[in-house]
Structure to design on (303 residues):
């Protein structure tokens, strides 16, 4: 009987130690998260100062600022595109095919898919001018639902695509949606489906995707978000007449520089800030050195 009592007491003590160990781990993890969040987030005072200085330059932020933890590089490679399978995804077996210089065109009535060759190898462009696709573009839920269906067709439901941006343009004429692949919680900006839908039902989309391979090397420090925005402000005010700029989205992901589109089998992608403006402009800024690496005048320049 005495031995049984000793065993029971030992069991209680062991359970107490396990509970203490779990609590200690939770406290340590919480402390680590707090320190990490504080270390890689600008202070309230700095954020207020940032907003004030930007506002004096007619630039306004309408989004949350991202944390800027150190990041590794990422290796990606080109993917083989199943062109005929993609065409059947949209048109079944009823479509026309045309081969032009640097383009393969699949078409059915008002719908068209162009697959580019050469310097834009593998880029997919989709347009639909049919009135049957007319949507109430002021209903965001309806637009997002339709956008997901179109994204699934363009990607043939492959990969891990998530909606990372959805917004009306400054003049409320059209919705812009962007989907990107996610690898271990990191966004791959160069893996995208971009969709524009206007109030008349005209749809334009483009898409390109690399195959992510792995992360490379050690984590390196990236530039803080306030440093990026100050330099962005300076660059923008060097080339315009103080026009109103609305920053609708700022996030961090991975981007392949344009000159790597077709030159190599295995390509390095570096972390970049993506700054999306209400005008449709999108700026990609290398997060290691704060240099702009890519810029588009509009979300989809063709529209």
């Amino acid at each position: 009987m005495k031995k049984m009592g000793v065993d029971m007491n030992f069991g209680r003590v062991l359970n107490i130690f396990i509970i203490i160990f779990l609590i200690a781990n939770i406290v340590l993890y919480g402390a680590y998260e707090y320190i990490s969040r504080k270390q890689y987030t600008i202070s309230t005072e700095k954020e207020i100062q940032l907003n004030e200085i930007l506002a004096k330059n007619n630039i306004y932020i309408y989004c949350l600022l991202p944390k800027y933890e150190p990041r590794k590089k990422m290796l990606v490679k080109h993917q083989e595109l199943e062109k005929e399978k993609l065409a059947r995804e949209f048109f079944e077996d009823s479509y026309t095919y045309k081969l032009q210089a640097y383009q393969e065109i699949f078409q059915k009535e008002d719908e068209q898919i162009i697959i580019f060759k050469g310097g834009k190898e593998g880029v997919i462009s989709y347009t639909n001018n049919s009135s049957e696709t007319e949507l109430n573009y002021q209903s965001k839920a309806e637009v997002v639902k339709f956008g997901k269906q179109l994204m699934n067709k363009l990607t043939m439901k492959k990969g891990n695509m998530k909606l990372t941006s959805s917004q009306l343009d400054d003049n409320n004429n059209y919705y812009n949606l962007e989907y990107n692949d996610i690898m271990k919680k990191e966004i791959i900006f160069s893996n995208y489906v971009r969709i524009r839908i206007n109030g008349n039902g005209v749809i334009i989309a483009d898409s390109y995707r690399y195959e992510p391979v792995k992360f490379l090397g050690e984590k390196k420090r990236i530039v803080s978000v306030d440093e990026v925005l100050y330099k962005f402000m300076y660059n923008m005010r060097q080339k315009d007449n103080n026009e109103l700029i609305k920053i609708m989205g700022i996030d961090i992901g991975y981007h392949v520089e344009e000159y790597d589109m077709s030159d190599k089998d295995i390509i390095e992608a570096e972390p970049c800030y993506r700054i999306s403006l209400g005008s449709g402009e999108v700026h990609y800024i290398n997060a290691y050195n704060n240099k702009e690496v890519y810029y588009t005048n509009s979300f989809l320049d063709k529209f």
Summary: Confidence is low (pLDDT under 50) at residues 31-36.
